[in-house]
Write a structure and sequence with these properties.
The chain is of the alpha+beta class and 197 residues long. 36% of the residues lie in helices and 30% in strands. Strands 1, 2, 3, 4, 5, 6, 9 and 10 form an eight-stranded antiparallel sheet that branches. Keywords: Membrane, Transmembrane, Transmembrane helix.
Length: 197
């Protein structure tokens, strides 16, 4: 019996010797990783910001955006929605950032005989004279924004010597087709009148 008790005591001592205490968290190493990660995120953000500014510098030849005339006439159409950005016409990934055209925002569009008035709370407003409008269509994407086919109203206009596509999304998507028709009719009418003269 004594040997049985001593064997049990020996195995208990062996089990106790094999157990280790839990590893203590190395807070200094963990803090170092967190600080390193935050510095990496800050570096990536800074590089993106510098890239945005560099793109704006490269597009510095783009003239200032026109502002709305004092008496544009009665509104043909009005739209509330979102402005998703502008790109070089036909190149839906070549975003234009000069003069605030790259800033997404809410938008209030008004189409008159004088042109297209783009009012953006919190961003730069601009005006596209009717003579500068080139085309309107429904499309699925513009730099950084892709929707279902026909989800975006794309207005092509000329500014300086550059053709620009600007993308808008109405709060009521069904009315975008009316905008395409109205703008294209306006362009065709002015083209016909110009040819007749």
């Amino acid at each position: 019996m004594t040997s049985l008790i001593s064997a049990a005591a020996g195995s208990a001592a062996t089990i106790a010797a094999e157990k280790k205490s839990a590893d203590v968290t190395d807070w200094a190493a963990r803090a170092g990783w967190v600080v390193g990660l935050l510095l990496f995120i800050a570096l990536v953000y800074w590089l993106m910001r510098e890239g945005w500014k560099w793109r704006g510098t490269l597009q510095g030849d783009l003239p200032e955006l026109p502002s709305a005339p004092t008496g544009p006439g009665p509104a043909k159409l009005e739209l509330s929605g979102r402005y998703h950005g502008s790109t070089t016409a036909g190149q839906w990934l070549d975003r234009i950032v000069a003069h605030g055209l790259g800033t997404r925002s809410r938008v209030e569009l008004t189409l008159t005989d004088a042109g297209l008035d783009v009012v953006r709370p919190g961003a730069v407003d601009f005006f596209v004279p009717a003579a500068q409008l080139r085309e309107a269509r429904l499309d699925k994407g513009i730099a950084g924004k892709v929707l279902a086919e026909g989800g975006l109203l794309i207005v092509t206009w000329e500014h300086g010597e550059k053709l620009i596509d600007s993308g808008f999304r109405s709060d009521h998507a069904a009315e975008q087709a009316d905008w395409v028709e109205a703008i294209n009719n306006m362009i065709n009418t002015s083209t016909t009148e110009g040819t007749a003269r």
